[in-house]
């Protein structure tokens, strides 16, 4: 019954793949439950620069957030969903969008292995901002020249 309205005009497997299943399932929930779901398990997370980055929900693991390291400067707390009950795994990326570090403990990363990451990345990406104290640094989406 819930899928029937979305099957109009569908005649083959290729068209079946185009059915918006998330929309179909959400339409079954009351508006208040949809709002609660959006609040507790958001599709996007707002990072310190203001960018809204899509969260990845994976089977049997915590949600993950792939984000450039410069956009997380100044963030000390542990981002979480489900009213703070489920921590988000932060996938810190280089300016070229390559993984640098995966962590749930940003404060530990900033105080620990960031120094080594900074040394390597500063030589590879000299146009980008690599502060000595990332906890007090302004987050950015830009290179140093445009800051």
Brief write-up:
The chain has 147 residues and is α+β, with helices and mostly antiparallel strands.
Keywords, please?
single chain; 147 residues; alpha+beta; 2 domains; two-stranded antiparallel sheet; 5 helices
How would you characterize the overall build of this protein?
The protein has a three-stranded mixed sheet with strand order 3-6-7, with no helix packed on it. A two-stranded antiparallel ribbon has the order 1-2. It has a two-stranded antiparallel ribbon with strand order 4-5. The protein has helices at 13-16, 21-26, 31-40, 106-111, 114-124; strands at 44-46, 52-54, 64-68, 80-81, 86-87, 89-93, 99-103. Helix content is 25%, strand content 17%. By secondary structure, it is α+β, with helices and mostly antiparallel strands. Strand 6 (89-93) and strand 7 form a beta hairpin. The longest helix is centred in the C-terminal third of the chain and has 11 residues, at 114-124. It is elongated, with a radius of gyration of 20 Å. It has two domains: 4-39, no CATH class; 41-141, no CATH class.
Give the low-confidence spans.
none
Helical coverage, percent range: 25-40%
Sheet with most strands: 3 strands, mixed
End-to-end separation in angstroms reads: 54 Å
Cα Rg = 20 Å
Strand order of the largest sheet: 3-6-7
| SS field, number of helical segments | 5
From the spread of the alpha carbons, the general shape counts as elongated
Classify the beta-strand content into a percent band.
15-25%
Number of domains: 2
What letter string, H or E per element, gives the SSE order?
HHHEEEEEEEHH
Q: Tally of extended strands?
A: 7
Instruction: Summarize model confidence as the mean pLDDT.
Output: 92
Helix-and-strand structural type: alpha+beta
């Amino acid at each position: 019954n819930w899928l029937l309205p979305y099957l109009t005009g569908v005649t083959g497997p290729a068209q079946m793949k185009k059915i918006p299943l998330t929309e179909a399932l959400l339409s079954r929930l009351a508006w208040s439950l949809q709002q609660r779901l959006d609040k507790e398990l958001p599709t996007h997370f707002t990072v310190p620069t203001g960018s809204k980055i899509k969260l990845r929900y994976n089977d049997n693991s915590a949600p993950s957030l792939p984000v450039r390291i410069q956009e997380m400067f100044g963030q000390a707390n542990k981002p979480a969903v489900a009213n703070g009950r489920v921590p988000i795994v932060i996938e810190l990326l280089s300016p070229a969008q390559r993984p640098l570090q995966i962590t749930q403990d940003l404060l530990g990363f900033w105080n620990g292995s960031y120094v080594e990451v900074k040394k390597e990345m500063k030589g590879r990406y000299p146009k980008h901002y690599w502060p000595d104290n990332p906890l007090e640094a302004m987050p950015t989406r830009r290179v140093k020249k445009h800051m």
